[in-house]
Structure formats: C-alpha cells, structure tokens
Design a protein that fits this description.
Udp-n-acetylmuramoylalanyl-d-glutamate--2,6- Diaminopimelate Ligase, Chain: A, domain 1, single chain, about 260 residues
C-alpha cells in the first residue's frame, strides 16, 4: 500500500521546516502533478534533477522526487521542450511525478545537512553560524568546537572518510595547524562565512579565490570539496530518517547523481 501523501509531505516539513529556509530560496512542494489523494509508493532522492537522474527515477518507478537543489529556482516564465530546465519539469509533469525540494531548510534544521557536515571531524559543541529568527538553536551553517583537537592532516583524512571522497582541496597557512574549531556550510560557504569569526578550519564546497587568501592570511585553513560533494553523503541519512517517519514508503537514493566536476 502506498504511504499517505499528506503524511509524507508533513514528514518532509518536520525534517526540514520550511520557515528555516533562506528568503532567496525556493523550497517545499515544487511540482504537484497528482490528481486526487493517491499516496506515494517510492521516493527518489537526488542532489540535482538532471536528465540522467530523472531517467533513473522513472526506471525505478518513483512517484516522488526529492531534489535537494530546487529545479525551479529563480522562476520559470515558460515551459518549452528546448531549454533543459524547462524540459525536465515538463517531463516530470507528463509522468505524474511530484517534486519536492528542502534545500536551505534542510541545511538549517536540527539533525540536518549542516550538522551532519559539522560532525565530519568528530563530536563537539555546535552553534549555527547565523541563528534563525524562528529558532535560535538552529539556522544557517554550523560552528563546532571539537572535543579533541586534531592535526590538519587528521582532520582532512576524517573529512574525506565522512564524505567518501578520495581527494579534496586544501589551503593552509601552515602545515602544523591544530584544528579545534571549524565552521561548515553545505555547497558554497563564501557569503555565510563572512559571519564567522576566527576559527581553525572552514569546510565547504567552493569559495572565491580572494576569500581563500583572506582566510589563510588570518591563520585559518580551508577545505573545499566542490559544491555538491559536501552535500551528497547526507542523502542516505535523509533516506533513513524519512523511512523511519513513513515506514510504508520505499526510499531510494540516486546512483547516478554526481558533482559535474571531477579532478583528473
């Protein structure tokens, strides 16, 4: 039996409350192609909705796509076959697929993506970089004070293990730096990190060159993974949390979703 539609959508909003999202973001139910109260049998999780992940979702007979990055972001004025972004939405509608995006709401939530990323180097005390007006314990990004300080080499190894990556990019003021405090931001942390004071390490997907220079000049090391490589590893965690909330729903994680950049 499919899981009740309203129950699944309510569970997603509990896991990533929409009022935690950034004002510029576009989160929640983006495409609702269903008619009537029919439930969801299979949810498909991906960071990005692309031609490849949409094809995979259809092959897996998913009826709900949870795309972390919103495939409708700045607003579509037309739906045509030519532009890829528009074609994907048309194809999803034609196949009766529902699309939901949690994005920055999931980043900011308790137990969400930023907290998961912050624990890459071990346990510690957390606080948001920017506190939410709705809940000061939550918000954008996280700063963690680790229970045990690590060498930068050990911190990098733990980050690679946590994210299942063979390589990351590292900028360091000196190789002997110890890491006790770390700020994290899924995706692109440059703007958010302007709100962070002195820490030992910044972890995110991408930053501007001059921001890197400024931070290393301040004595802070930076680890960059490329944008979605610091986000994708959370999808199995989200799948488990959604399955716990909706045990009648089958939840699958994309196998073809990947960052468009590779290091060669």
């Amino acid at each position: 039996m499919p899981e009740d539609r309203a129950r699944v959508l309510a569970a997603l909003e509990r896991l990533a409350p929409l009022d935690l999202a950034e004002d510029w973001d576009n989160v929640g139910l983006l495409v609702d192609a269903r008619v009537g109260p029919e439930g969801f049998a299979r949810a498909f999780l991906t960071v990005d909705l692309t031609a490849q992940t949409l094809e995979e979702a259809v092959a897996m007979r998913a009826d709900l796509i949870i795309a972390y990055h919103p495939p409708i972001f700045s607003g579509l004025k037309r739906l045509r076959r030519g532009p890829v972004a528009e074609r994907l939405i048309l194809e999803a509608i034609e196949r009766g697929l529902t699309i939901y995006s949690p994005h920055t709401a999931l980043d900011a939530a308790g137990g969400g993506m930023a907290e998961w990323l912050a624990f890459a180097c071990g346990p510690g005390q957390l606080r948001p970089v920017v506190r939410s007006a709705h809940d000061p314990a939550l918000g954008a990004g996280r700063v963690i004070t680790l229970e045990t300080a690590l060498s930068l080499t050990e911190a990098v190894q733990r980050i690679k293990h946590h994210l299942d990556l063979d390589r990351v990019r590292v900028a360091s003021p000196e190789p002997s730096i110890l890491v006790r405090t770390m700020a994290v931001c899924p995706g692109a942390g440059g703007a958010l990190f302007q709100e962070v004071g002195q820490v030992d390490l910044l972890l995110t997907g991408e930053m501007r060159h001059h921001d890197l220079l400024a931070r290393t000049a301040m004595g802070t090391a930076v680890v960059l993974t490329d944008h979605s490589n610091c986000e994708r590893g959370y999808l199995p965690v989200l799948a488990g949390r959604l399955l716990e909330a909706c045990p009648g729903l089958e939840v699958v994680v994309s196998r073809v979703d990947a960052d468009p950049l590779t290091i060669v």
